[in-house]
Structure formats: structure tokens, C-alpha cells
Amino acid sequence: MKFNRFIPFAAPSQLLVCETDGFSLRAAVLRRADHDLNVLYRAQTEQVDMAEGLSDVLAALKNQGWQGGGAAILLSPAVFSTLVELPVNPKKPRPLAQMLELVRWEAEPLLLQHVTRWSVGHLLVGQGYMTEEQARAVMDLQQGKPSANGNLAMAEQFSLRRFGDLAVEMGYIKRSQLNACLTGQEWLKSGDEAIECGWAAQGAVEDIPGTYNWLVSCVHRSLLQRWTDAFARHGVKLRAMYPLTGCSAALLPAAESNAVLLETQPGLGLGARLAGGSYTALRHYLHPNKAALDICLESYHALHAPPREPVWLACWPPAPELAAELEHMLEVDIQRLPHAAAGDGVSPGMCGAAYHALGLGEATRCAGVRVGGPLPPVADRLEVRAAALALALFALLGVAELSLWVRKSSIDSYKQQVDASWRSIDEAVKRINAKTAEIGQIKDKIKSLRGEQSRLENLAHFYDQDIPERMYLVKGVLGMLQTVVDDEVVIERLDEPDKSDKSAAKPAAAANPAQPAGPLDAKRIEAEHFELEAWALSDSAAQTFVKRVGDAAANWDLQVTESKVAFGKGPLNANGFTIKLRLVKLAEPDGKIIRLSNPKSYETPTFE
Fold this sequence. Notes:
By secondary structure, the chain is of the alpha+beta class. Among the domains are: 3-129 and 174-206 and 219-254 and 341-380, no CATH class; 399-472; 485-587. 40% of the residues lie in helices and 23% in strands. It contains 14 helices and 18 strands. It has helices spanning 50-63, 96-115, 120-126, 132-142, 152-158, 163-169, 175-186, 221-232, 292-303, 320-330, 348-357, 382-484, 508-511, 539-554, and strands at 14-20, 25-33, 36-45, 71-76, 80-86, 195-204, 212-220, 237-243, 259-265, 268-275, 278-286, 311-315, 334-336, 369-370, 489-495, 525-536, 559-569, 575-587. Strands 3-2-1-4-8-14 form a six-stranded mixed sheet, sandwiched between helices. A hairpin with a 4-residue loop joins β1 and β2. Residues 497-519 are annotated as: Disordered. Residues 432-459 form a coiled coil.
């Protein structure tokens, strides 16, 4: 029995159930309500490509109000279920790896035989695209057998050709019908050998001591992964795949321990016999052209059931007259296996698989192939160990609570004394905090007064020293230029760059890279500088002017840097030489002005 039967919240409350026969897809969203199921939404499509069909049905469900996501299960004829006999007692299970190896050893050849049934010819006949006689004729030609008219040449011509291509060339089917079957075949069979299995323990085999029946379901791993990826692309997690027939057994009443179950799908049938609540026989029937009545009759007779055992019938699509026909033919009472959720678009197998996945039915009557492999025994499961650990923690917590309750009375009296002490401490802390806040206000006031004092000192220094020194330097430069200008030189511009420009305060060595500086120039910076532009009639006049400016600037602790003389137009567009130079006042890095020489004392000239 599933673990979520004991812990109901371990299973989801809603489940997406999908069912495919290889050429169509049905989907329904079922909700668990107490111990029953309700259908919320349903959709179906006849799309042959299952990836596109899944997109269609999920979009239709969302249009009806489904929020998407969650868990899903899938019923597919690609999943094969059978009874296998294993020397494993269900009460003494083997380790998971060993059990998986035993089941695969028994199930792998049966699955390979089952997959051969999904040949192109079988699918074409099952869909009604061609008759069995036509399929037999194509196979004869394919195998090189002579035709009925004895034409051996034609048989040799078409031998070893593909069945579908031969059927198209012989005019039995259309190319579109062949393509549809090939597309459906991709979702029914796989060429790899790896398989995934699921199992459920049954009863002991009567005539073989120490051997037990196990209900096994298996599918190719690549096909399971392909379906898992298809659901994952839509944000849905595929939990398991189930066989198309056989899942309705989960709907049988729990008290029905001895019974015969007949289940039909188009072209498929299943007969199962339960004794003591466990499977004792399981027969699959596959014939695309057989009617449901014939399939049920052959399945029932193959079980060799006693005449008095109750017979349950699960039929899809619904056929109310089938039960009456079986009663007439078998002369036994037929009980239909209905469910409130089964009906339009929801088969009994879908309801049974949902019962099994949600833990509502008997777990041993249905077996699915779980994505990720079968779960280990209950005692080895992580959730069981977590529950045991939680119970142990609860027990420890109970003991701790009892101990704390015993000590609580003695602690309460001591707590009252401590509370009284804390109240006195709190009052003292409040007084200290008040004093601390008062001291902080005084500190802030002192800091504010110091800032105001510094601002006033800087302002006094600016008006007392910086402004007079600046005026003295500017007047000196203007007077100096007046003494060095003659009739052949015209001063065009004298500019003093903004002192806020940080690029002006640069090392003296970088002021004029072309002119070598003194031994200490590399450590000095520019404190002041002026940019002078003039024009001279001749090159000799220009060079003389530059030299005069340098000699005169030395008297004001200035240096001439970056002097340039070049031919250029002057006033009135006259030919001459343009002069550009910089007058720089140097200072030490600490701001101390460098005195190059003693400035000559002369009266500062005035300009009208």
C-alpha cells in the first residue's frame, strides 16, 4: 500500500491524467475530495504528433480555467504490464537494486515482444487505412513470396522493401496515412534496450513453494524520458506512466477479493482474475479488427474462471449494451465498473490510474512506471525516516517541556527579584542616557563654534594677505611689460587663467618639457601664472622681446616658460612674428613661494 495512504498530505490534491492510444490524446484534471474524485476540466485532441497534441489539450484546459503546472500521469499502450513469478517474499523484500535486476530480467523479453506489435502494418490496419488481406499481400511481396496469380517476377521486384512504401506503391494507402502512422509509432516504440519498471506484490504461487506473483509494468527508458521532457516544456511534472488497460482494477471495491475483470479499449482487451485480493492470472488481447464483445468473450474463456465468480466490466468507449450481450452469451451476472468521474472524455482506466496515484485505491491492483525509478521499501524511504526523526524530536520536546515545567515554579520567584533589580538599573540607565545626550549637545555646539571660528580666520587671512599680494603682483607684471615694449612689438593679449583650474597647478618640470629646469624644479609647483601673446615686426625684435621679458620677470620672482615665436599675421594684416609665452611663479609643495632674486624697487607704472 502506498505511503501516502498513511500520510494523505504526501499526495497532491489535483492531478492531470492523460491517456493516449497512439493516435489521439485525452486529458482531464481530477481533484481529490475526501475518498473520491471530481473532474474539474477535460479536453481531447486527434493530433497524431503527441508533442503537438499535448500542447493542444493543455491549452484547452487552461482556457477552461486550469492554472497549469503540478503533477501528471499518462496511460499509454507503450507500457506493458504482466504477472511474473519471482522467488521474493513481499514480507521480506530484496534491496532495491537487486529487485530491479530481477524484474528487468523477466520483463525485458516480454516488452520486446510487446513492442513488435506496434509495427507499421498493425497500425495501418488498426486505424482502418487498409484491410488484413491487403496487409498480408504486402508482407508476401516484402518477403519475396509469389503472389496469388503466380507472378514471381513481381515478388522479386518488391522483396526487401519497406512495408509502408510498398503499401503506398500498391495503392492500398495514401502517403499522408503512412506518415500519420509513422508519427504515431514514434510515441509507441523505441529502439533502445534500457527499460524502466514498476511492480506491486501479489500472492504466493500455489504450485511453486517460495515463489510469488508480482504485477510488473515496464516501458523503454528513452520513451519515458521523451514524455517527461514533453510535459516539462509546459511546466508539468510527469510522475508515472501506466498501461492503457488494467488500471481500472483500482476502482474495484476493496471487499471484492475474488473477481474477474474484463476491460476493453478499441482493438485492445484485458482479462484479469483476482483471488484473495491478489492477481492470479492476467491476459492481454490485441486485435485491431475484433469487436469489443468478441474480445471480452475470448479474454474470459482464457482465464478459466469458475462460473460463480463475479465478473466486472470496464469498457471504453462506453457501450451500455455490451454488459447485456455478455450476460446473454456467458450466462453470468455482469457488473459494470462505473465511476462518477468516468464519462465524456474520461475513461475508467484514467480514473483507476488517478485512484492509484492519489492513494485512494488498493495499491496492489495497479502498477505504474515511476519517473526516476521505483521507490525503495517503506523503511528505507527518506520521508519515513524523516517522520521517525520528527516523532523522536517530539518525544524529546515533551521531556524537555516536562522538565521546564518542574523548574518553572522555582524560576518565577527568582525572576521577580531579578525584575526588581532590572527596574532600578533601567532608571539609572535612563539618567545616564539623559546626561550623555546633554554632553553630546554641548559637543555639537563646541564643534559648530570651532567651525565658525575657522571660517572667520580664513576670511581675515584672505582680506589681510591674499588680496594685497595679488594686487601687488598684477600691478608689477603690467609695469614690467610697459618697460619692455618698444616700437616694433605689440602686446595682443595678457590672460590670467582661473586659479580653480587644477590643471594649472602642475609640477615645474612639466611646465615646459622643451626647456630644462633647474635642479630643484622637479619638486616645485606653479603657484601663479600668466599667458602672454604679442606680435613683432621681425624675428630679432621678437627674440629680443622674449629676452627682455625674462630678465624683467626675474625681478618679480617669475619665470618665462613655453615661449614660442612663429611667423604670422599681425595688426592690419601685416606680416610679422607672433609671440606666445607663460609667466610662472613657483612654490614649494608646502605652498612657500620661491624667491628667485631680490625684486628691484621701482614705482609701479600707471596706465591711462
